Structure formats: C-alpha cells, structure tokens
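seq:
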Amino acid sequence: MKAIICGAGQVGYGIAERLAAEHNDVSVIDTSPELIRAVRDTLDVRGFVGHGSDPDVLAAAGAEQADMIIAVTLYDEVNMVACQVAHSLFNVPTKIARIRSQTYLQSHYMDLFSRDHLPIDVIISPEVEVGEMVMRRIALPGATDVVSFADGHLAMVAIECLQECPVINTPLAQLTELFPDLPSTVVGVSRNDSLFVPHSSDQLMAGDLAYVVTTREQVRRTLGLFGHEEAEATRIVIAGGGNIGLYVARALERKQSRTRVKIIENNRKRAVAIADELRRTVVLHGSALEQKLLLEADIDHADLMVALTNDDQVNILSSVIAKQLGCKSNLVLINNPTYHEFAKTLGIDAHVNPRAVTISRVLQHVRRGRIRAVHNIQRGAAEVIEAEALETSPLVGPPLSEQELPDGMRIGAVYRNGQVIKPSGSLRIKPKDRVVIFALESAVRQVEQLFRVSLEFF
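struct:
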C-alpha cells in the first residue's frame, strides 16, 4: 500500500513508524525541515518539506499512485484542504483527516464532509477519542486500559496482577474450569518487558499485566476476580480546562451521578468560558502546581486527580503533588512516550497516551480485510483487532481445533447475532461473525489474511 502522511509530529511519526514497519510505501510531508530530517534518518520512508495541501508537494510525494492520504497536521484547515486537493486533483481513494475543532464536528454541520463538499472519508477527533478513553478509565478504576468492541458489547481490559491477586499461579485452563459461566479470556500477557500470547497451561504471575477480553456486563466481575474492587471515584479534580478537560466534565455532568467535579484552569479567559458552559462543575483559575489552589479544590479529600493539560511535566508533577496532599489516585495524560516507562515509579497510577489512541483509529482504516476496530498495544508490539468474517474468509468453516492459526494470535470472543460466544476448540466461525483477536506485531498481517475478501467472492 502507498500512503501519504501530512504532518510529522508525534502522531504522524507514529503512524509512519507502524506503516513502514509493515513494509508499506510511505511518504511524509511537513513544513519543518528538522522533523522531516528526523523521519528520514530513523524510518524507511520518504520525506518532503512543504505544505500537505500544496499540489506540487503532493505530486512529488506520489499522490497520483497513492491509496491513502492521512492528514494529521496541527491545523484542521490544512488537513481538510489536503484531503480536498488529494481528491480533486489526484483521485486518492481514502482520505483521513484529524479535526480538532469541535465546531466542525457539530451534528448539524457534518454534511460539510460529504463527497459533494469536503470529501473526507474518515474524521478523527483526538479530543473526543481521548475524552472517551478517560471516561472509560474513570468508570473502571481497576483497569490500566479499557477498549470497547462489537458496538460496546465486548471490552478488552488490561489488568495488573498484584501480589495478592487471587488468580496468580493458577493455570489458565483451570481458571476456565473454576468459572465456566465467566465469558472472559486472557489473550495476552506482558511480563518483564516481554509481551506474549499465553497457552492454557500458562500461569499468571505477580507483576504481570494481563489483557482480557470479556463482555460489557462482566467487566467488573472480571476485575474483582483479579483482586481489583476499587470503587468508582465520586470526587474528581481535573487539571486543565482545554477541549479534553471540558469534554470529560460535560460527560460527567451528563451522567447525572453524584460525582462532584472541580476543574483547575490556568488561563483566566478560558476558565471564565468553561465556567459559563458547565452547570454543576466548579471552575478554579490558577496553576495545578500550586499547593494552595489544590487544597482549595479539596484535593486532600478527592478520590481522583485527572491531569489533562497540554504540558506533560505539569500533568505528572501536579498528580504527584496531589497524591502527597492526600488524593487517593491519579490519571495522567502523557504525550511523550519516554515518560511512560518511569511514570509508575513517580507515583502515577494510570496514564493515557493520546498518540496511541489516534494511531489506533488510523490503523483501523489501514488494515486490509473487514477490520472494524483496532487498538494499539505497547507502541505497536501488539494489536487488538475486531474483524468481520466473510463467506470466503479462511477462518470460516472448520472448528478452531482443526485450523492452523498463526503463532502470536489468540481469539478473545466472537459476537454473533447479539450473542457473545467464548472461543473453544469446537467453535466454528460463521459468515458475519465479529471476531475480537489479540495479535502480536508479527502476526498482524496473517490476521488480515484470515479476513480477506478473495477474488472468488466477486
């Protein structure tokens, strides 16, 4: 596949890194010579200095032969025009644009992105995607990662196995026997910086991070089985009243729960603006690094500090201070991947990576076959994929026990006609089944092949 990526920032670089690793033909465009130099020096891609909306630059990047353009610059208007030029002048089949402004995304304006106006096939809003991720993490405090599949009927939950975890040192097959009515499957394990797909004879150990696929209704029970019975936060302090902070506050207000929310916003004009928009949320003006202001926000009685400013260092430090002042836990937005590795040692309970969230959304549309959703695990070390089986899919027909499934993948669940089916050796995949699969990086291409559309289908 030939792809053009407009924007070589963290998101653009991450997408280019994933696509190049899979031997796709990738061209990256950015106005910054330094960013393009870094892309050329570290990745097997072509780099072009210029505007992604410039026809000459797009032509030099190979737009006439491109299968896809992914516009993820910092500017919505550049992303939109790049897609329009790619469509009108080069007839690029698939056009993906990152749109950050919520104004463009209002429902009564969505006709703007139709083929007759601005022909954008896929719109990605990082603020909305990250806001939804934060809301899922707030709802399930025992999970370190939560992603929905099959229209919300299934979930992949990452769960840390603590020393007192009831299920450690027990073969996975035995867990299935002990809890036959629990539709939960351990599909991946991260241990000592190594990610692998477990076998039924394997055991979980203290310190492991287990990736579990289960039904929406059984997520809390599954967390409890792993020893995580943390109560949902009812007193929350949000640092940062930007688009993500405002989105989370609005969502919490819409839930009409007994949750009490306070926002700390450093920009006075922004603080006044969001205070006018929110009904039940208290907005405080000042820096989240000021202990006096944190105490004024009752951080010493708070259940959760959610740090969502644009500055990683402010997010990390304010969350550490919050816990020292008595806040029970924290959830931190961290953009820089180098901070992820030692965040836990600083006292960060959980973090959200906006780049990973956005890359996952893009990969959903890059993958071949009937791929409905993709979630990126540990900077591309693995993916959780939801795919739809077709009549010609190699996976359809024989029972799973008779199929030669690739190493490095495990089926977590099958969603069929409104019912969730836990995988077993006797299970036969049927056409239109939606299958949730955990696949290591080495197995992703083979998973795509299992759900491909063969020529005989046409």
